[in-house]
């Protein structure tokens, strides 16, 4: 049993009248200890459920991110004229609406905007469809690449994926508790704004509940992060909905102030104002989704193509590649119709396969 951890647990688990929030340093200590398995299972389980009931603060999220920065993996800076985009996607996947983020990542990379994603396999509480399975379905297997090889892929293609089961296996312990508890711990919230990149980055984070966005702002302000976007997206993702107003928080990129939260400008977008129908594409299964994505990549008009244009247009504008949403949507359509997005996927697939072969050959040589 860890006496140090017990004191931190007592602090957050003492109830409404005597309980206290952790300081940033204390939250970092607690996170590091849990990742390293220093407390007992009883202590870790009690901490995770107590922290969820109490609700984390922005300062606590900042401390948790500090621990991830110290212990976790990071891709190194690549040559890019603009900050890379880090897409924070929920870790229990999608169950109701068809994801489009891999297509958006390919579209952005084809336009010269590097994108970094991160995530793992199907996880509680939803056990929904994760990004890594979608990538695999369209021909890109991120799961077998060591971090050094992922770095090379990122440098050559402008697309990276930090696969946590391989690149940050210490997190597996936390997800086992999450399964047993049946609830998302604050780690799930924190990882939406985690940035496994050592260079200049623009963090995109999805959320469901407004208090989560406020926590993001406070945590990012604590850490001095000024480039971020928050999106009340589909199933808490970074994807703009079509059936309702997309509520977006835009940081004033590169600005700082003395407030306790990072400043944002509120933006509301309606799909119908840009010529799209007010309907989200349902998720009917991985096989059908991959078939739909192949149509999108071929430039064939479809409901999922409309979702790709809606999201692609926004991100092309937000990244500064296009001066307006309208121009972003037009450019996204051109990139799809002219085959630039499909060509980026082909390049990515070939680079991953080539570097994987080199890595496997080296392993065989070492084993022999």
From TrEMBL:
<dbReference type="GO" id="GO:0000162">
    <property type="term" value="P:L-tryptophan biosynthetic process"/>
</dbReference>
<dbReference type="InterPro" id="IPR035902">
    <property type="entry name" value="Nuc_phospho_transferase"/>
</dbReference>
<dbReference type="InterPro" id="IPR000312">
    <property type="entry name" value="Glycosyl_Trfase_fam3"/>
</dbReference>
<feature type="domain" description="Glycosyl transferase family 3">
    <location>
        <begin position="97"/>
        <end position="340"/>
    </location>
</feature>
<dbReference type="Pfam" id="PF00591">
    <property type="entry name" value="Glycos_transf_3"/>
</dbReference>
<dbReference type="InterPro" id="IPR017459">
    <property type="entry name" value="Glycosyl_Trfase_fam3_N_dom"/>
</dbReference>
<keyword id="KW-0328">Glycosyltransferase</keyword>
<dbReference type="GO" id="GO:0005829">
    <property type="term" value="C:cytosol"/>
</dbReference>
<keyword id="KW-0808">Transferase</keyword>
<dbReference type="InterPro" id="IPR005940">
    <property type="entry name" value="Anthranilate_Pribosyl_Tfrase"/>
</dbReference>
<keyword id="KW-0057">Aromatic amino acid biosynthesis</keyword>
<keyword id="KW-0028">Amino-acid biosynthesis</keyword>
<protein>
    <recommendedName>
        <fullName>Anthranilate phosphoribosyltransferase</fullName>
    </recommendedName>
</protein>
<dbReference type="InterPro" id="IPR036320">
    <property type="entry name" value="Glycosyl_Trfase_fam3_N_dom_sf"/>
</dbReference>
<dbReference type="GO" id="GO:0004048">
    <property type="term" value="F:anthranilate phosphoribosyltransferase activity"/>
</dbReference>
<feature type="domain" description="Glycosyl transferase family 3 N-terminal">
    <location>
        <begin position="6"/>
        <end position="68"/>
    </location>
</feature>
<dbReference type="Pfam" id="PF02885">
    <property type="entry name" value="Glycos_trans_3N"/>
</dbReference>
């Amino acid at each position: 049993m860890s006496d140090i951890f017990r004191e931190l647990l007592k602090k957050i688990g003492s109830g409404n009248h005597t309980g206290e929030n952790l300081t940033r340093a204390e939250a970092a200590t607690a996170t590091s200890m849990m990742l390293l398995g220093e407390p007992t299972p009883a202590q870790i389980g009690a901490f995770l459920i107590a922290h969820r009931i109490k609700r984390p603060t922005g300062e606590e999220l900042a401390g948790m991110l500090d621990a991830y920065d110290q212990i976790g993996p990071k891709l190194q800076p690549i040559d890019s004229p603009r900050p890379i985009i880090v897409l924070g996607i929920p870790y229990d996947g999608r169950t109701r609406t068809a994801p489009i983020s891999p297509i958006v990542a390919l579209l952005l990379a084809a336009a010269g905007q590097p994108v970094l994603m991160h995530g793992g396999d199907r996880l509680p509480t939803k056990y929904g469809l994760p990004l890594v399975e979608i990538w695999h379905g369209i021909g890109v297997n991120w799961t077998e690449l060591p971090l050094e090889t992922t770095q090379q892929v990122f440098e050559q293609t402008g697309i990276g994926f930090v696969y946590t089961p391989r690149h940050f296996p210490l997190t597996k312990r936390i997800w086992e508790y999450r399964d047993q508890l049946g609830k998302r711990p604050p780690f799930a919230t924190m990882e939406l704004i985690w940035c496994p990149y050592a260079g200049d980055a623009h963090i995109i984070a999805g959320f469901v509940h407004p208090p989560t966005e406020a926590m993001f702002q406070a945590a990012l302000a604590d850490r001095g992060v000024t480039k971020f976007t928050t999106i009340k997206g589909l199933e808490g993702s970074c994807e703009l909905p079509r059936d309702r107003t997309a509520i977006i928080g835009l940081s004033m990129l590169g600005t700082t102030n003395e407030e306790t939260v990072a400043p944002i400008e509120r933006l509301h977008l309606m799909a119908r104002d840009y010529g799209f129908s007010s309907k989200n594409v349902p998720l009917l299964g991985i096989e059908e989704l991959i078939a739909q994505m192949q149509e999108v990549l071929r430039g064939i008009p479809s409901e999922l193509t409309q979702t790709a244009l809606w999201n692609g247009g926004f991100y092309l504008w937000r990244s500064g590649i296009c001066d307006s949403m309208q121009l972003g949507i037009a450019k996204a359509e051109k990139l799809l119709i002219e085959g630039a997005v499909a060509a980026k996927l082909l390049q990515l697939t070939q680079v991953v396969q080539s570097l994987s072969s080199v890595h496997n050959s080296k392993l065989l040589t070492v084993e022999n």
